[in-house]
Design a protein that fits this description.
The complex is a heterodimer of chains A (464) and B (585).
Chain A lengths: L1 H12 L12 H4 L12 H7 L3 H17 L8 H4 L9 H8 L3 H10 L3 H6 L11 H4 L4 H17 L4 H8 L5 H7 L24 H6 L34 H29 L9 H9 L5 H23 L7 H29 L3 H30 L36 H11 L23 H6 L1
Chain B lengths: L12 H4 E3 H8 L3 H11 L9 H4 L9 E3 H7 L3 H21 L3 H9 L7 H7 L3 H6 L1 H12 L9 H21 L2 E6 L3 E8 L2 E8 L12 H25 L27 H11 L25 H21 L6 E4 L5 H10 L3 E4 L18 E3 L13 E3 L2 H9 L32 H11 L10 H19 L1 H25 L17 H18 L3 H43 L1
Helix pairs in contact in B: 3-12, 6-7, 10-11, 10-12, 11-12, 11-15, 18-21
Chain lengths: 464, 585
Amino acid sequence: MAAARRLKRVAISQPGFLTLNPKVTPTDLVSSRRKRVNKNKKKNWNKYSDVQDVEEFLEDVRHQERTTGGLLCEKSDDSLFFLDVGQPKKVEEKEAAEPVKGKKRKGKSSRPLRIDLILQHDSLVAPPKDVLAYQKPNAKKLRRTAERAEKLAANGVVPRSKKRLLNRTVVDRMSKKTETEANNNPERDFYDIWGQETKDLGEPWYLQQTRKKLVKRPEKLNEKPSVLPAVEVIAPGGSYNPDFFSHQELLREAHEVELKKKKVEDKLERQLAYNKADTATEETILREQVEGLVEESEEEEEKDAPKEDGEEVAVGAIAVADKKTERQRKREKAEKMKEQQRLTERRQTEQQQQLFQLRSIKTSIKQQEETTQIRQKRRKAKEEAQKAQPRRLGKLKFQPQDMEVQLSDELAGSLRQLKPEGSVLMDRFKSLQKRNLIEPRERAKFKRRLKVKYVEKRAFKEIS
Amino acid sequence: MGGLQKKKFERGSATNYITRNRARKKLQLSLPDFRRLCILKGIYPHEPKHKKKVNKGSTAPRTFYLLKDIRFLLHEPIVGKFREYKIFVRKLKKAYGKTEWSAVERLRENKPTYKLDHIIKERYPTFIDALRDIDDALCMCFLFSTFARTGKCHVQTIQLCRRLTVEWMNYVIASRSLRKVFLSIKGIYYQAEVMGQLITWVVPYQFSHDHPVDVDYRVMATFTELYTTLLGFVSFRLYSSLNLVYPPKLDSNGESEPKEESEDDYAMNSESYLEKLSALSASLARVVSSADEEEAQLDQFPSEGEDMEKMEAREKELKQQEAQKKLFEGLKFYLNREVPRESLAFVIRCFGGQVSWDKSVCIGSTYDVTDETITHQIIDRPSVGKQYINRYYIQPQWLYDCVNAKILLPVEDYFLGVTLPPHLSPFVEEKEGDYVPPEKLKMMALQRGEKPGNEQEEDEEEEEEEGEQEEEQEEDDNGDEEDDEEEVAEEKNLKKMEEQRSQGKSLHVKVTPGKLKVENKARLEQEEKAEEKRLAIMMMKKKEKYLYDKIMFGKKRKVREANKLAAKRKAHDDSEKAKKKKARK
C-alpha cells in the first residue's frame, strides 16, 4: 500500500502529470512550508502531518481509474484527442449509402447505442465478488450424498423417506363422506350389530381412559320405568263396528270420566260463588256512608272501658315471682327424689307382675305381628298398584288423554265411511308420558317483547 | 362427645339426586340437547321417595335425575357432537349474517353428524332385548311414515320411516307371523309373533292426520331417530334369519310377476323400487334359493303325566298355527279401489293369498278384474255394475274376522249390502264367567268344528241356534256351579228323607223288582270327585272357609252378571227382529 502511494507521489511530482481537476496545479499539492513538531508522539503525527493533498490526489487517481479506465497520463494521445475536420459531406454519404443498403442497415443495427456505450463498464476496478454465489456450505458433503443416492438408485434401493411416503395408508375420500352421512338418510345401510363381537385390544383401563372403549352401562338403567305395555290396545268398544254391549260399556266409561270432570268444575264454581244476600243494596250503602257519624259517642265510651281493663291485666302478668327460700328448695329436691324412687319401685313391681302375664303378652305380640304383616301386605299391594301409575316427574301432573269414543249415531256402517277418532300421534305421546319416559310439559308460551300497534293503512281507510 | 356437626343435605338421598337444571349445567348442554341426549341414552327422570329431603327442604315440584345416571352420561361421545353442532349453527348464522355464501356452503358440507349405532348396542345388548322393545319403534315408524311432507319433521325422516315399515311388513309376510288384526276407530292394531315375542303395533288410517298442537314434535322426532336406527338393525337381523336379502329385493322368478308396463306412470326409477316393494304383492329374493323348505318336525320326547298333556296341548296349538298360516292359500283376491289397499294386501299376503288391484290404484297389480280365477272380490260399496258368477263379492271386514277367528268364516254374513256382524276385538281374553258376546261364541263353535246348520234360512232357525248357544254358554259358565247345585240337590233329598222319617215312621214298605243299576264309570268318578270336594270343603278351617265362600260368591256374582247381560242381549235382539219383521210386513 505504502509503496503504491509512494509511486503515485513520484508520478505526480514529475512535470508531465495532468490532474483531472484543472484548478489544482501539481505544485500546489506539494506544499513547501513546514512546521516543526515533535515527531516522537503518534498524536502529533496525526495532528500536524498534512495528508490533505495526498488524499485529494488519491481520490483523483481513483476517480480517473473509475471513469476513464486508467490514468490519463498513461493513455495514448489518439485515445484522447481527434482531429476536427468539420462537417462531413452529406451527399457523399448518401451516395455511399444507397448501393449498399442492406449493409448499411446491418451496420446501423450492429452499432451499439450511445447510451449503452456510456453505461458500459470500463473501469479497471473489478466489481466485488459475491463469495456466497460461488461457495456452497457443505458442498462437499452434499455432493457426496448425491453421488451415493445416485448409486443406490442405480441399484434399485428406495430411500427411507420415499418408502414412508409409499407405505402411507391411502386416505379414503369416501370414508369421510360416510362419516358425514346424516342419521336419517333414507338410503342408509344397516349391518348385523349383534353378530360381530368387538375385539378387546389392550388393557381395559387404558382403553377406557383413552375413550376407545365406552363405559359400561349400569344394569339398572335397562329396567323400564313402568310396567305398562308399550301399546295399550283400545277397549273392544272402540272397534269400528263394535258389539253393542262392549260399545255401551265404553260409552259408560267415557260418561263417567266426563262426570268426574263436571264434578270438579261444579265444585270450583261453588267455591267461587258468592252469597247473594251479601250484595250491596241501597240501605246497606247508606249505612256504610253514615257509619261513624250517628252513634259515634256511644261507641267510643264502650271502647274506652275494656281498654283500661286490658292494661291492668297486662301489668299483673308481668309481676315477678318471689325468690324461693333455702327451705323451699330443699323440700322440692326431696320431693323430686321421692317421686323418682316411687317410679322405679313401681316399674319393678310391674316387671315382676309381668311374669304372671306372660300369656297375654304373648297374644299381644302375636297380634302386633299380625297387624304388621297385614300392613306390609297392604303396602306391597299399594306399591304394585303404584307401579302402573304415572309418577310425578315435574311441575305438571300427567293428564290422561280424552277417551276416544264414537256415539251410536256416529258409528260408520262400513269401513269406507269410517271417520277416524282421535290421533295416534297424541296416543303415542301420552303413552310415553304415562310410562314415565318423559315428563309432562306445557307448550312454551310465546311472549311478545314489544307491543303491537295496529294502524289502518291509508288505502284501507279511504274505503272504510 | 362432639365431633363435627352434621350438615343437612350432604348425605343420603339429597346426594343421590340431581335436578334437571343442574344436570344440564354439568353436561354443558342446552335444555333441548339435554332432553335429546336423555331420550337417546334411555335415561329417564326419577321421582324420589322423599321429595323434601332431595329438594333441600323445598317442596317445589322439580324434575330429578339420579346423579349416577348423569355421571354415566358424561362419558357419552355424542355430548361432544352436540356441542360441535351448536358451534356449527353459530358459525352458520354468522356466515349468513355476513352473506358469505362460500363460507355457508363450506360449513354445510362439513355439518357435524353423529351415529347411534353404539347406543343401540349398548342399550340392547342382545337381539332379543331389541325385539322386546320393538313395539314402540314400529308404532313410531308407522306413524311418521304417514305424515305429510309439510315440514312438521324432516322429509328424510319420513322417507326412512316408510322404507323401514315396508321392510317390516315384507318380513312379516315372508315369515307369515301375523296373528291378530283389530280395526279400531283410532287406527289398525296388528299383532305378530316374531321369534316367540308378541309384537303389537298400531297403524293410523291413511290421510287422517290433523296435527294436534299439544304434542312436542321435537321429542317425538328424537324418539323416532332412535327407533329408526333400532328398527333398521332389527330388520337386518330378521331378514338374515330368513335367508332373505337385505335390503330387500323382489324375487325375480316369482310366479306372480308384476306387470312391467306402465311403471313409469307411477314414479321415477329411483322411487319405483320402494313403491313396488310397498305394494306387497311380490315375494322377496332369498340368499339361498330354497324351493321347498323342510318343515321342521317337533322332536318327540318320551314324557309322562302332566308333561304329556302339556305337550299335546302345545302340539295342537302348533298345528292350529300352521293351519292359520295357510288360511288364504289358494285364494285369489281382487281389491276394489275404495278399500284400504295396503292393509288388506298386507293381511292377505300374510296368510298366503294372492292379491291384485286395479292398475291405476297402485303399482304392482298382478292381474285384472276380468281374471276368471279370482275367488273373492273385496268391495265396500252398496252395489256393483258387472258381477262375475264364479266369485264372492264380500266386504273387507270378512278378511279381518277370518284372521282373528283363524278359520275361513262363512261368507254369507259379509255379502254386498248386508249389515255386518260386529267386529270383535281379538285382544280381549275372556276369563271364566265373563260375559261373552254371542258372535264370539258362534265363532268359537265354528273353530271347534261344529257346523251350525244351514244359516241362509230364516230367522227362526237362527234364533234356535242362538238359544242353543246360550245354553251352551250357560253350561260353559256354570261348569263350577254344577257341583254346588248337585250338593244342594243331595242335601234336599236327605232332608226330605229325614222329614219323612220323623213325620211318619210309616214308610211305604214295598218290595219292588230290583232294577239293574247301570254303573256309569265316568259318572261314578265324577261323583267321587264331587264328594271329595265336598268333604274337603267341610274340613276347611273357619278362616279358609270364609275365604272360599267369598271367592265362590264372587264367581257366582260374575256368572249372574254375565247371564243378565246375555238376557239383555237376547231381549235386544228380539226387539230388533220384531222391528225387522214389522218393517218387512
